[in-house]
Write a structure and sequence with these properties.
- This protein has eight helices and 62 strands.
- With about 900 residues, the chain is mainly beta.
- It folds into four domains: about 120 residues, no CATH class; about 200 residues, no CATH class; about 240 residues, paralog of FGE (formylglycine-generating enzyme) (Alpha-Beta Complex); about 230 residues.
- A hairpin with a 2-residue loop joins strand 13 and strand 14.
Length: about 900
């Protein structure tokens, strides 16, 4: 029973009661024995534990009840100690004088008592106390976690005070509720924050909010709010999350790291009309909760948010609405979202649960790998098979392709299959018609063999492996083969998992370094040459001790795995690289070892990684080991696993910025350091002018009040520009995106309506508006214009239902498709003229067209497809304003 370790606490005293029946029958049970004043000063071991032995009633269940009697400062009980008033700490095992529960307990454990045998009963008790200092008045060093929480709805403490107005509802800020959590574990401890899902119930509708989504506006983020917010009838009009870290001053000189995690909810009329309620739990830890679950058999503290928002005001921690709670000893609490402050977003991607560096998605069978760096290639300090390892240069030519070590940066986080793809997984792809049967016929294959369903799929070519990963019918959806760099980082970790110098400390094997015995090898990897080796495949995931730092299994054995890259020797003169994908085409050589001889071939080859049940452990199971085969090669010891990109983490900001002036991003001005934290701006121009424009991510920009122009982005690179939270553009001005030859993608995640746009003279641009529903017009322009765009340009607006303007698509030499599957109303008319490459048309929902319907001189677009759209209209323009000429003739 651990006493408190808070500063100034000198003794804690407990009482124990043992009764001879179950917890359910404790009221009628007999007392076997009871003992009070079991104090840490007398019975403790000095390092946090107390032991005490007593008797129990043999042959039946007994219930042991623990009570906390007193906490002392200034000395031990009876030796100068002063009892701390009960109002200053929160008792997890409280009872009143009659034995009834008054708080969160009881601290009771039921155990069978066995005759003449010790029966250990262990209580782990965590106790909350009232903090005596605020975040900006820290006077002592903490030895435990210090948290504050609040639910704030109004600008003052009374119900008559106005609601907070933070989030945008259309064009204006509207009533907002803020749930706030902030904690620190002190200057020398990690701090981890946790939330459950947030449930907002308004009348008959319950919204479930994933706090790990974002940060920023979540309205346009798929899966962040379930059901999705419906602007027409939602009591909830917007949700946003904000996470970050701040340095707090300290009288002792060492700053404290405070983490905060706030959730803002936009409620129509403050939630009063729909009588909304809110519920969620939050907590903190100075390490990490395994799988986000509080420890079993422990009274663990958490904060419960539970409020009726129709009467919501300021609720401080300690109120009924923001209450301190404990888990019972027989219960745990599951938290779905975690933030550790070491990155710009939540450490748990959507769908993943984390414990330390291991984040697992049980539904998809993947683990997450964060963005970061590694030294790729074999480590000549630790790896005795590596060229350059002292004393072994004479025979390390076999592993020449594994060297030299070189620095690699992976800028995006990704998911990788936790295990190799199973025979059952691959069979499902075959059954769906998306995969061919494995091409191998040498025997030893697993796919379709009864009893081997959970063994790794094998005997497939590289194209077959690629086809499986691309199949969207599996739980993880569409994936891809991992790049060689992704595979190696997932297998051996990165610089953030190394203590000390990264280059010298990169692991040789997924679990670390070479085990001392055969038995230890066999516990970690299915490889040959050991007395305990099975000599064939094992079910995937059979050897959890072989896990990599990120939780990937079987990366040093079972079967080799195809990766995406063509093979080429590492270039010793190459500089550090970012997001490498290997050579652009097949290299001239691959290596294999008949009769222990290194042979080079001119047959282009792909890379395969990892060890296998048939490849020597010492050389082939190393995480840096590279092997190669032509794409057509098959083998019983060759399989696969897949990767996929995870959503980019967007900026967490201590505060958002309302930019005071027009912002021009160009060669002369560069990019502001605070770009990701700008909330509003009068106007924005991104002007390439021959400058190599970097990727630009406006993570928190909600409003542009005057003008938005993106033009002349054109260099050898391909730029991506994203607007995650933008909801408001000027009502009287068009957006201009024009003359961009190397702007690969511009995306507006949250923009639901705007006046209109001129999308002109771009090449290879994907202009994406996933939330756009309405083009409202600017009051004086007559047309929404898409014109003179070259090859690869797309206008993507799957939810667009109405355009008040005339929709004009004219003179686009390279645009191949007009796909607006939700468009129903076009009162301004539609003109699609002289688009030479246009061959795909989807206006299947279109019912009402005003003024004009002109489809002319689109030489690759079928007249029949156009006529089908016209025939489906219930409101059409006059015959004189309808033309279908010069298009591809019907078959």
């Amino acid at each position: 029973m651990a006493p408190l370790t808070l500063p100034g606490v000198t003794d804690v005293c407990y009482a124990i009661d043992v009764r001879n029946d179950t917890v359910a029958n404790i009221a009628t049970a007999q007392t076997v024995w009871t003992k009070s004043s079991i104090c840490a000063s007398q019975y403790g071991d000095g390092v946090g534990d107390i032991s005490y032995a007593g008797t129990c009633d043999a042959g039946r269940d007994n219930t042991v009840t623990l009570r906390i009697e007193d906490i002392f400062t200034g000395g031990a009980k009876g030796a100068g100690g002063v009892a701390v008033p009960g109002t200053e700490w929160i008792n997890p095992c409280a009872r009143d004088a009659l034995g009834a529960l008054t708080g969160y307990g009881p601290c009771q454990i039921q155990k069978p008592c066995v005759d003449n045998q010790d029966t250990p009963v262990e209580f782990n008790v965590t106790i909350m106390r009232n903090a005596k200092q605020g975040f900006f008045d820290i006077a002592v060093n903490f030895e435990d976690i210090f948290c504050s929480a609040k639910l704030d709805c109004r600008t003052g403490p009374d119900l008559s005070d106005p609601y907070i107005q933070l989030l945008h509802n259309g064009s204006d800020r509207d009533d907002t509720v803020v749930m706030a959590l902030a904690c620190t574990a002190g200057p020398d401890q990690a701090t981890h924050l946790y939330w459950t899902d947030v449930t907002v119930t308004c009348g008959a509708t319950s919204y479930v909010i994933d706090p790990a989504a974002g940060p920023g506006n979540l309205s346009g983020v798929a899966g962040a709010v379930t059901p999705a917010i419906d602007a027409d009838n939602a009591a909830l009009f917007q949700v946003a999350t904000y996470r970050g870290a701040e340095q707090l001053g300290n009288a002792g000189g060492t700053p404290f790291n405070k983490l905060y995690w706030n959730i803002a909810l936009g409620l129509e009329d403050g939630g009063q009309a729909a009588d909304c309620t809110i519920s969620a739990n939050a907590t903190a830890h100075d390490g990490a909760l395994v799988d986000g679950i509080t420890p079993a058999s422990t009274t663990y503290p958490y904060i419960q948010f539970a409020a009726n928002l129709s009467t919501c005001t300021q609720h401080e921690l300690g109120s009924d609405e923001v209450a301190e709670r404990y888990t019972g000893l027989a219960t745990t609490e599951q938290f779905s979202a975690q933030f550790d402050g070491t990155n710009a977003g939540p450490s748990i991607p959507p769908g993943f649960r984390c414990a330390g560096t291991v984040c697992t998605n049980e539904a998809t069978g993947e683990v997450a790998v964060p963005a970061g760096a590694l030294w790729m290639g074999c480590n000549p300090v630790l790896d005795w098979e590596c060229p350059g390892y002292e004393g072994h240069d004479d025979w390390n030519s076999w592993n020449a392709a594994d060297a030299p070590q070189h620095y690699v940066e992976l800028t995006g986080r990704y998911a990788i299959d936790r295990t190799e793809v199973t025979a059952a997984n691959y069979q499902a792809c075959m059954d769906a018609g998306a995969c061919d049967a494995p091409a191998g016929s040498n025997g030893g294959h697993t796919v379709g063999v009864a009893g081997l369903e959970l063994h790794p799929a094998n005997d497939m070519t590289w194209p077959q492996a690629q086809a499986y990963c691309a199949w969207g019918g599996k739980a993880a959806g569409v994936q891809r083969l991992c790049t060689e760099a992704e595979w190696e980082r997932a297998a051996r970790g990165g610089c953030e998992t190394v203590t000390g110098d990264c280059q010298a400390g990169m692991r040789t094997f997924p679990w670390g370094e070479r085990p001392a015995t055969d038995a230890e090898v066999c516990e970690r990897a299915n490889v040959p040459g050991r007395s305990c080796s099975p000599g064939t495949t094992l079910p995937v995931g059979s050897l959890p001790l072989g896990a990599s730092p990120y939780g990937a299994l079987d990366m040093a054995g079972n079967v080799l795995e195809w990766v995406a890259d063509w093979f080429a020797p590492y270039d010793p003169a190459a500089p550090a690289t970012t997001d490498p994908t290997g050579p652009a085409a097949g290299g001239d050589y691959y290596s294999y070892f008949p009769n222990n001889t290194l042979v080079w071939s001119t047959d282009p080859a792909r890379v395969k990684r990892g060890g296998s049940y048939s490849h020597a452990y010492d050389g082939r199971a190393r995480a840096a080991r590279r092997d190669t085969y032509p794409e057509w090669f098959v083998s019983p010891d060759l399989g696969l696993r897949c990767c996929r990109d995870l959503p980019r983490l967007i900026a967490d900001c201590a505060e958002l910025i309302d930019y005071p002036t027009f912002l021009t991003i160009n060669a002369a001005n560069g990019v502001p350091d605070d770009l990701g934290c700008i909330r509003s701006i009068p106007g924005l121009m991104i002007d390439g002018g021959g400058w190599e424009v970097p990727d630009l991510h406006f993570d928190h920009l909600e409003e542009v009040s005057v003008v938005l122009i993106i033009q002349s982005v054109g260099t050898a690179s391909t730029t991506e520009i994203t607007f995650a939270a933008l909801t408001t553009l000027p009502a009287d001005r068009f957006m201009n995106i024009q003359n961009n030859s190397a702007l690969g993608r511009v995306r507006f995640d949250a923009l639901t309506s705007f006046a209109g746009m001129e999308l002109a003279s771009n090449t290879g641009l994907s202009a994406e508006f996933p939330a756009l529903t309405t083009l409202v017009g600017d009051g004086h322009s007559t047309s929404q214009v898409i014109q003179s765009n070259g090859a690869g340009t797309q206008f993507v607006a799957p939810l667009l239902t109405s355009t008040a303007l005339q929709f004009v698509m004219v003179g686009n030499s390279g645009m191949e498709a007009l796909v607006l599957p939700s468009l129903t109303d076009a009162p301004g008319g539609i003109q699609v003229i002289s688009n030479a490459a246009l061959s795909t048309l989807d206006l299947s929902a279109l019912k009402h067209v005003g003024v004009k319907f002109n489809f002319d001189s689109n030489s690759a677009l079928s007249t029949c497809a156009i006529q089908a759209v016209l025939d489906g209209l219930t409101t059409a323009p006059a015959l004189a304003d309808t033309t279908i000429t010069g298009n591809l003739a019907c078959p």
